[in-house]
Amino acid sequence: MTAPPTSLGCMFDPTHIPLPESSPSAPPPQTPSTHYCGQHTSPPSISLGSNEMYPRGNGNSCVEVGQRFIISIYGTEKVFTAVGDCAHVRTCVRDLTQIWTCVRDNNNQFGFINQRTARFLGRDYNNNLLCSAAMLTEMEYLTLIKLSSGGYKLCISVDASLLQVQLKPDSDTMQLVTVGASSLTIGLNQLDEPVFSRFEWVIPERLARSSAPHYVCGDEDQSMDMEAVNFLVRNGITNLISVNTQPLSMRELLLLSCHEITYTHIAVADYHSPNS
Questions:
Q1: Which pick of 67, 194, 213, 251 has the fewest CB atoms within 10 Å?
Q2: 88 in helix, strand or coil?
Q3: In this structure, are strands 7-10 and 237-242 parallel, antiparallel, or unpaired?
């Protein structure tokens, strides 16, 4: 007889289930497991309650390649937001247009790419701050200068000179001005969340629960990429039960199938229970 499969899932569960002693990154168990992916009683990592200001923290996160950030006007809830090809300053809300991933190219130059639009923060030839480039070039190379008083100055090199980012007068868009002029002090607010937030073994090495992969703000955020699949494989997960309102794409289903992971989708609205 074969052992029953182990399952992993993200499901509505208002109770607290303590984590077992073993780490989720431990070697795969001998029996497969099931994972539920979907709804939460409250959003993980980015909690934007009506009575609290976000981004939290002091805006002094260190620049780290591969990490995701909210870029704020230092000490405020106003954050950089991709709107079409432009970069605006808007009140922080639950939207991926306000999340930026730090990247570095082969020339050791840094940039920030928007999570929603997959476009880089940079400038145009009139020194307006945009979010339109699909590749990291010298017009998207950013320099962050740490300030002793807190926060950073954000600069871009133009004709071998550094220009600072500043708000345009009476506008929520930005431009580049000469160093020494009044400029924005920005805050870097790193988002620390694993691929599957709130991963917990409900029945050790048999049944687990978590968020949807790469969940940030809403059901549409989920992304079953290779990083997520590797996490499932490392933990011996072979059955995936999703109660997300959005199903996975055919490409994502094929990726799971190639790694012998089955997928069942049961759409469940937020704060509701499965009815099937």
A1: 251
A2: strand
A3: parallel
Do 127 and 137 form a contact (C-beta atoms < 8 A)?
Answer: no
The Cβ-side half-sphere exposure at 104, using a 13 Å CA radius, reads: 10
Tell me the torsion sign for CA atoms 22, 201, 96, 135.
positive
Residue 87: name the closest of 108, 109, 71 by CA: 71
Give the SS3 label for residue 33.
strand
From residue 110, give the alpha-carbon distance in Å to each of 31, 97, 99, 243. Answer: 44, 19, 16, 38
Angle at alpha carbon of residue 77, lines to 125 and 217, rounded to 5°: 90
Residue 1 burial (CB count, 10 A) = 3
Can you tell me the distance from the alpha carbon of 101 to that of 67, in angstroms, rounded to the nearest whole number? 6
The answer to whether 237 and 207 have CB atoms below 8 angstroms apart is no
Q: Are 6 and 35 a contacting pair, CB within 8 Å?
A: no
Cis status of the peptide bond prior to 29, with omega within 30 of 0 = no
Please count the residues of the chain: 276
Taking CA atoms, 98 is separated from 34, 154, 206, 271, in Å, by 33, 16, 37, 25
